[in-house]
Design goal:
Elements lengths: L2 H10 L7 H7 L4 E5 L2 E4 L4 E4 L2 H4 L8 H13 L12 H13 L6 E5 L2 H18 L7 E5 L8 H6 L3 H4 L9 E4 L4 H4 L6 H19 L4 E6 L15 H11 L3 E5 L13 H4 L6 E4 L11 E5 L1 H14 L12 H17 L1 H20 L5 E7 L2 E6 L15 H12 L1 E2 L1 E3 L2 E4 L7 H18 L1
Parallel strand pairs: 3-13, 5-6, 5-7, 7-8, 8-9
Antiparallel strand pairs: 1-2, 2-3, 4-10, 9-10, 11-12, 12-15, 14-15
The structure holds pyridoxal-5'-phosphate.
Length: 449
């Protein structure tokens, strides 16, 4: 890229999730092209993309079939909407395909453009549902420490990550934050994984009783918490918390924005972790990250209440210009067809088991790695200052960020979530590329520590 362009980018673009002053000094990593699990920058340097971009490019970074689907659709109907009873062919096919694999039987599908809109839509649907049942005061939402649900006002308020709250004064008065199911950091000494799961369920019930179940509408939860640090819940966690929620008439909203479409080794994380959600948010993998499209899968019980309520008060007053956009929907249709053809679930399991065994081989005895986690094609290693008692590094040492930068210098892109280095590569990553990725992280740890 020309120096002028680079200077313009640095002077004019306010980046998301970026420290602006550091960006003014260092400038962007300009990615020019990508194929499979590899991206190439504007100077021709190649990187193994260990995170599928932002957990989304499940089919890699360029795909002819997805490109053709967009091109074909743009030449017939490139723009339209689904408000006021309008629809289009790609939307009709997309909802049919989603219903086929949905973790909620007899569902309805609501479409949005981004995951954050899907989060907000789930919350508004939960509120609308309770208004329809004559319980408008049942409106608080339980989230969790370490959660990430998006960046719009409500979605950000639901995040349990300090950087998402700092200096925004978000409306958190109706939100409760339960403990994260992160055994490595949250378990008591000598507590078994199953006892830990049971304790979290009983803590949740304590929170509900203290707050008043008649004030709580829903709990929102990622099956595997992604941006918090790849936290994989104990096996008994979701079945137990679900019992608690059912006892108190509280909905469970599964945020499957990372976990959906094969990532955890099933079509949805809800299957992997035995969750029976009332609503499910989907995004990212829905179009393999190639188009901004997202949505909410809704149970029939909720749909019927919403439809009844709208019948009595008028239009269901919620929607986005690009809900059910024909081009984004056509690309999502093609992505799901590809997933079915290549057996995305089988791929997640085989590539994931290779990733996890490579991580274990490299890091099981590593003096600065305290925990190695993985499910499906999703993994993480947690860096510690002292393995004897798993003391973390002081946050100001920014160890994770330094490892991330060292990986970049060595030709791999990974993401640090505090002290955890996360792995979420495209599904076609080869075994050799996986081994190279893990080796780069190993070398980066040597560089930094
Ligand atoms: N929920 C989860 C679990 C996510 O990981 C993300 C994005 O990373 C979102 C919600 C928000 O999605 P979007 O960035 O498309 O608004």
């Amino acid at each position: 890229m020309s120096n002028d362009r680079r200077a313009a980018e640095m002077q004019l673009h306010l980046h998301s999730q970026t420290n602006p002053r550091l960006h003014e000094a260092d400038g962007p990593l300009m990615i020019a092209e990508g194929r499979g699990a590899i991206v190439i920058d504007d100077a021709g340097r190649r990187y193994i993309e260990g995170m599928s971009g932002l957990w989304c490019a499940s089919l890699g970074f360029s795909n002819e079939r997805l490109a053709d689907a967009a091109y074909r659709q743009m030449r017939t109907l490139g723009a339209y909407h689904t408000a006021n009873h309008r629809s289009n062919e790609p939307v009709a096919e997309l909802v049919r395909l989603i219903e086929e694999i949905s973790p909620i039987p007899s569902c309805r599908i609501y479409l949005t453009s981004t995951g954050s809109e899907a989060t907000d839509s789930m919350v508004k649907l939960a509120w609308y549902y309770n208004c329809a049942r004559g319980k408008p005061e049942k409106r608080k939402i339980i989230s969790r420490q370490g959660a990430y649900h998006g960046s719009t006002v409500m979605a950000a308020a639901l995040c349990g990550l300090p950087n998402m709250h700092r200096a925004f004064n978000l409306p958190t008065q109706d939100i409760l934050y339960a403990r994260r199911p992160h055994y490595f950091r949250e378990a008591e000494p000598h507590e078994s994984v199953a006892s830990f799961g049971a304790r979290l369920a009983s803590e949740l019930e304590g929170m509900i009783l203290a707050e008043g179940a008649d004030t709580i509408a829903a709990m929102i939860a990622e099956p595997v918490m992604g941006a918090g640090g790849v936290f994989i819940p104990p096996e008994n966690y979701f079945p137990l918390i679900q019992e608690v929620l059912a006892r108190h008439d509280i909905l469970l909203l599964a945020d499957e924005i990372i976990c959906g479409f094969g990532r955890t080794g099933n079509w949805f994380g809800s299957e992997t972790f035995n969750i029976k959600p009332d609503m499910v948010s989907i995004a990212k993998g829905l179009s393999a990250g190639h188009m901004p499209i997202a949505g909410v899968i809704i149970s029939d019980r909720i749909y019927q209440a919403v439809a009844d309520q709208a019948a009595s008060i008028g239009v269901f007053g919620h929607g986005f210009t690009y809900s059910g956009h024909p081009v984004t929907s056509a690309v999502a249709v093609e992505a799901i067809r590809i997933y079915q053809e290549i057996d995305i679930v089988g791929l997640a399991r085989s590539a994931g088991s290779h990733l996890l065994s490579s991580l274990r081989q490299k890091f099981s005895d590593h003096e600065f790695v305290g925990d190695i986690r993985g499910v499906g094609l999703l993994g993480g290693i947690e860096i510690v200052a002292d393995r004897k008692d798993n003391t973390p590094f002081a946050p100001e040492e920014r160890i994770g960020a330094k490892v991330e930068m060292a990986c970049r210098r060595r030709g791999a892109l990974v993401r640090n979530m505090g002290d955890t280095i996360a792995f979420c590569p495209p599904f076609q990553i080869s075994e050799t590329e996986t081994e190279q990725l893990v080796e780069v992280v190993h070398q980066a740890l040597e560089d930094v520590l």
